[in-house]
Automatic annotation (TrEMBL), chain A:
<feature type="domain" description="Fatty acid desaturase">
    <location>
        <begin position="74"/>
        <end position="318"/>
    </location>
</feature>
<dbReference type="InterPro" id="IPR012171">
    <property type="entry name" value="Fatty_acid_desaturase"/>
</dbReference>
<dbReference type="InterPro" id="IPR005804">
    <property type="entry name" value="FA_desaturase_dom"/>
</dbReference>
<keyword id="KW-0472">Membrane</keyword>
<dbReference type="InterPro" id="IPR039393">
    <property type="entry name" value="Rhizopine-oxygenase-like"/>
</dbReference>
<feature type="transmembrane region" description="Helical">
    <location>
        <begin position="55"/>
        <end position="87"/>
    </location>
</feature>
<dbReference type="Pfam" id="PF00487">
    <property type="entry name" value="FA_desaturase"/>
</dbReference>
<keyword id="KW-0812">Transmembrane</keyword>
<keyword id="KW-1133">Transmembrane helix</keyword>
TrEMBL record, chain B:
<dbReference type="Pfam" id="PF00355">
    <property type="entry name" value="Rieske"/>
</dbReference>
<keyword id="KW-0001">2Fe-2S</keyword>
<dbReference type="InterPro" id="IPR012747">
    <property type="entry name" value="MocE_2FeS"/>
</dbReference>
<dbReference type="InterPro" id="IPR017941">
    <property type="entry name" value="Rieske_2Fe-2S"/>
</dbReference>
<dbReference type="InterPro" id="IPR036922">
    <property type="entry name" value="Rieske_2Fe-2S_sf"/>
</dbReference>
<keyword id="KW-0408">Iron</keyword>
<protein>
    <submittedName>
        <fullName>Naphthalene 1,2-dioxygenase system, ferredoxin component</fullName>
    </submittedName>
</protein>
<keyword id="KW-0411">Iron-sulfur</keyword>
<feature type="domain" description="Rieske">
    <location>
        <begin position="5"/>
        <end position="101"/>
    </location>
</feature>
Amino acid sequence: MAGKVKRDYSLVGESTRIAIETGLASAEWYHTDVPRKTMKELMQRSDSPAIRDTAIWLAAILGSAAGGVYFWGTWWCVPFFLAYGVLYASASDSRWHECGHGTAFRTRWINDVVYQIASFMLMRNPVTWRWSHARHHTDTIIVGRDAEIAVMRPPDLLRTALAFTGILDFRYSLPALVRQAFGKLTPDEKSYVPEMEQHKAVIAARWHIAIYIATIALAVFVHSWIPLVLVGGPRLYGTWHMVLTGLLQHIGLADNVVDHRLNSRTVYMNPISRFIYWNMNYHVEHHMFPMVPYHALPRLHELIKHDLPEPNPSMWHAYREVWPVLLRQLKYEDYFLKRELPPTARPYRGEFHEVNMSAAAE
Amino acid sequence: MADWVEACAVDDVDEEDVIRFDHGGRSFAIYRSPDDEFFATDGFCTHEKAHLADGLVMDDIIECPKHNGRFNYKTGQAKGAPVCVNLQIYPVKVEAGKVMIQIA
Ligand code: FES
């Protein structure tokens, strides 16, 4: 298991083989009991909350872009672009996520349109990322299976710090789209995108690249950086909020367990971050019940929190909790933060969870 | 010759909802549509092993609880990623307040 073998984060390597052999891959995960009638109410879809939030989001994007362009060449453009960057490059992540699950809107085509737009803003291939996210839900933080482990062990702190600037993401995402546009998928991508879907990934990448080429051409034509600051560029200066909130989802917690209460984190956040993040701060709840739309997650949280670890009261609290764990993982990568379950919680599948418990922070 | 099997009573399934029915080592999902008709499909999603009875019925659609894959439960048609393989459907009839499904 992971404690004995060095972690291999490729999706076709030694850890993959072990995860499959031990039954960690595609395992049955723990769910808190929620009566069917209640769950049905929580799962109900509605267009109105997401239409309202999307209208605010788009209006704020257009308003901040207009302000930035209007004040271009003066310092006054800076606050507008700071806001624009976060709305473009961070808020799009949660829109991508919710619409990818198909839970944001009741109307399917609106989910799909917002999903495509948000994928473009994030420089993410809408096809490969849909499949990688499905895998993330099947095998959350299972080493060798989960394609979306943000901080691997031992942690690369420089890389993690640079993630806030968006430089690394940009350096990875753009070449990945170019490669995919040329019809090349990596072995990892092929491991989670079914063959019959792979050509769609190539077509989507070509569309994205075509739009970027058109943006560059426009910038050259009008002799201005503005098109690039508005399209693509925000990935460099507006990603920080996505990283600030998103890193907390799983960082420092257990890997190779089949209970989201042990490997995911719920953090209370301020209302602005929750708007940008579309309530994904209720992350244990989201993983346990991905059918529940973002606007119903606070209700779900109230309903099941008796069975979950204590949420972090703030992002600051969560980062203070994570920092010493990361430092210790530099020397001892099996170390992790053990989530305390409430005494009334039902423990689940100890055979997986005990594997790393000796390494856990008490 | 395929057998008709009693799956449940009509009242066991709420309108626009689904329940699980296990029989002969197999699992099925029994649906009641918003216009009060009954339908039956295989119980498990064709993507991975998740029981559709834990999912959400919306009009003609059953949405899988694991990755939100969608099927038309009347035709079995998979409506797009992450479900690519159609769902097996079964004939259904209602007799004397019982929902019967024909299992091959
Ligand atoms: S298991 Fe049903 S959509 Fe993945």
